Amino acid sequence: MCEITEKSVVRGLRDVAAAETKISYVDPNGSLYYLGYNIDDLVGQVIYAEIAYLLIHKRLPKQHELDDFSNQLIIEMNLPDQIIESIKNAPKSCHPMDILRTEVSHLGEYDPDSGDFSDAANFRRATRLIAQVPSIVATINRIRLKKPILVPKKELSFAQNFLFMFKGDIPPEKETNVIHRYMTLHADHGFNASTFAARVTASTNSDMYSAITSAIGTLKGPLHGGASEKVMDMLDEINPEKDVNEYIQGLLDEKKKIMGFGHRMYKAQDPRTKHLRDIVEDFCHRQRSLTLYNRCMEIEQMVFEKKKIYPNVDFYAAVAMDALGVSKEFFPLFFASSRISGWVAHVIEQYEDAVLLRPSADYVGEFGKQFIPIENR
Ligand code: ACO
Questions:
Q1: Rounded Cα–Cα distance for residues 132 and 126 (Å)
Q2: Considering the chain, what is the average pLDDT of its residues?
Q3: 259 CA from centroid of ligand 1 (Å)
Q4: Which residues are part of the catalytic machinery?
Q5: What is the pTM of this model?
Q6: pLDDT above 90 covers what percent of the chain?
Q7: Closest residue (by CA) to atom 18 of ligand 1?
Q8: Considering all CA atoms of the chain, what is the largest pairwise distance in Å, rounded to the nearest integer?
């Protein structure tokens, strides 16, 4: 019998620091910092491309650097024809997140820097992915709606182009402000599950496309970025006649999770929530959005009274997206289109750290079983 050393298991890796990072800090008391800047000081003051630059270059750009970076992003939004063809051929019944995951992996086949793992090539790849993920998302939507695929416009900012290519209209100022703030708030968040997945893949010295494919698959789950779509399912289910209190109590009695609530890291309110709540309050002038907003406020109050837990980023993000006219199956794709800047920044940081991320497990299975050939089993 072999001897095994008992290991202490940290279930769910709760509070385990798996590496050092300089990219973002999630303060459990309810603050979030990107490269040392409190997000409260950034939201509404910056455009999203500035944040993407900050995350990958680890400093805020000067105006001319931002202009060059934005121009580069807009150029890189043009997708290879093969990717567009492949999106057209995807089954109509599959979730758009499946198409995004596949096409990011597919992009790796057309990497102009293929085989070059230098820092310069990785920065070029990072810039391309920041541009191409939203572009794939917009293309999936246009193809599903049987509308023409649009090319980016030089005179629009990168985030405006995303919304323009997705919806087909040049976004007015209010929508522009919402998309910049939404994308800024979703850009990075410490060692969340999808970022960790990307870093694990990168830690084997695998390529950036593989790492981002891992991240997208991880973000898709309803306990992570898939939650906002489920929030909208819940809001749609609580029709105006339903009593919110009864509905929430029913979920709790059945020991079901209330989507868009709770967080592994925060002991206080998620700092992104107040910004998203403000966006929603300010922007939701349509009747449906107002009704949803009021219902959200009711749910927030009720869940806090009953469980003492706060809404997370996905709760009000769902209503903000709905008010922007984005259909709910695309909510996780907007999340991915923003988080891509954090993911690629972390992949680069992981390459610099150059250590394999590989935990161990506490084996609790059997030993000494007698092998029986297949014909005798
Ligand atoms: N609804 C009801 N109860 C909840 C919720 C919730 N949404 N979240 C946590 N709790 C309760 C748990 O039932 C548990 O209670 P207990 O101690 O009485 O058993 C306690 O709070 C701790 O919950 P855990 O699931 O252990 O917390 P964990 O840190 O593992 O999970 C998670 C965090 C996954 C986010 C969880 O809160 C959840 O499932 N939320 C719903 C899904 C969601 O909104 N995900 C998005 C998160 S944000 C993001 O990823 C972008």
A1: 10
A2: 95
A3: 9
A4: 263, 314
A5: 0.96
A6: 90
A7: 307
A8: 75
Interval between CA 105 and ligand 1 midpoint (Å): 30
**Residues 216-236: b if buried by 16+ CB within 10 A, e if exposed:** bbbbbebebbbbbbbbbebbe
User: Nearest C-alpha to atom 3 of ligand 1 is from which residue?
Assistant: 257
The alpha carbon of 33 and the centre of ligand 1 are apart by a number of angstroms equal to 23
Q: For ligand 1, atom 32, name the residue with the nearest CA.
A: 263
Q: Which atom of ligand 1 is nearest to the CA of 270?
A: 48
Pocket of ligand 1 (CB under 6 A): 12, 223-225, 227, 257-264, 307, 309, 312-314
Contact 74, 152 (CB under 8 A): yes
pLDDT at position 289 is 75
Cβ within 8 Å of residue 222, ≥6 positions away: 229, 230, 259
> From the CB of residue 372, how many other CB atoms can be counted at a distance below 10 Å?
8
Residue 173 to residue 171: CA distance in whole angstroms: 7
How far is it, in rounded angstroms, from Cα 357 to Cα 242? Answer: 48
pLDDT tens per residue across span 143-180: 999 999 999 999 999 999 999 999 999 999 999 999 99
Per-residue buried b or exposed e for 147-172, using 16+ beta carbons within 10 Å of the residue's own CB: eeebebeeebbbbbbbbbbbbeeebe
CA distance 242 to 226: 25
| pLDDT-based confidence at residue 350 (cuts at 50, 70, 90) | very high
Cα(245) to centroid of ligand 1, in Å? 19
Q: Whose CA is nearest to atom 31 of ligand 1?
A: 264
Between 245 and 122, name the one with better pLDDT: 122
Please give the C-alpha separations between residue 298 and each of 294, 295, 302, 333, in angstroms, as whole numbers.
6, 5, 6, 27
**Residues 272, 279: Cα–Cα separation, whole Å:** 11
What pLDDT digit, counting tens, does each position of 64-105 carry? 999 999 999 999 999 999 999 999 999 999 999 999 999 999
Span 313-323, pLDDT tens digits: 999 999 999 99
Residue 137: both structure tokens together:
């998302």
Ligand 1 nearest-atom number relative to CA 261: 7
